[in-house]
Write a structure and sequence with these properties.
Layout (H helix, E strand, L loop, with lengths): L4 H8 L12 H19 L3 H11 L20 H13 L1 H9 L13 H16 L5 H15 L4 H16 L13
Helix pairs in contact: 2-3, 2-4, 2-6, 3-4, 4-6, 5-6, 6-7, 6-8, 7-8
């Protein structure tokens, strides 16, 4: 039986925790992207189908006070959300290969928690295709999301993989800058 996004959130979320801070549409877009990528994989649905479902039923208040705990994303930048989900689907082989190259030992992508896998895919997609957001900001955003979903070692693990991915895909952003006047 497939697990729904809401069930996975409740299974993995901190008690009383939220996957993201309210009032941050770009963070909301990233939370929704993680949820949508999870749902797409778990349900075998296309990116376009999941994007449509999220825009119609999960993003925004839609006349309800339901929030993150109910699998809703009250505020989200829909164009950013759609761009992440579409690009993750389109470039899935490249993104998965990049993530897999930073897993240690006998760990494979399939062994990762499905929500963690979706989070890494969403972040790697942003590193790969959208240089408009600095890599360190992307890492911080997805770390906030990881801490919202997980209590254990997963955020620390995600931080290591995200840092390695950022340095691989956006290495120029991590080069030492010469001191002023040097």
């Amino acid at each position: 039986m497939n697990e729904t996004t809401g069930q996975a959130q409740k299974r993995n979320a901190k008690p009383g925790g939220k996957p993201a801070k309210a009032g941050r549409p770009r963070t909301g877009a990233r939370v929704a992207a993680v949820q949508a990528l999870f749902q797409s994989e778990a349900g075998g649905e296309s990116a376009e189908t999941v994007i449509d479902q999220f825009v119609r039923h999960r993003i925004g208040t839609l006349g309800s006070d339901a929030g993150f705990e109910d699998g809703r994303v009250p505020q989200a930048d829909v164009p950013l959300f759609s761009r992440i989900v579409r690009a993750a689907a389109k470039d899935a082989e490249t993104i998965d290969a990049a993530i897999a190259s930073h897993l240690s030992g006998n760990w494979t992508l399939d062994r990762l928690d499905p929500v963690l896998r979706a989070l890494l895919r969403a972040a790697a997609t942003e590193f790969w295709g959208a240089a408009d957001t600095p890599a360190r900001v992307v890492i911080n955003e997805y770390m906030d999301i990881a801490h919202g979903f997980f209590d254990g070692e997963e955020p620390r693990f995600a931080n290591g993989v995200l840092d390695a991915l950022a340095r691989q895909m956006r290495g120029d952003e991590f080069q030492a800058k010469p001191a002023p006047g040097a």
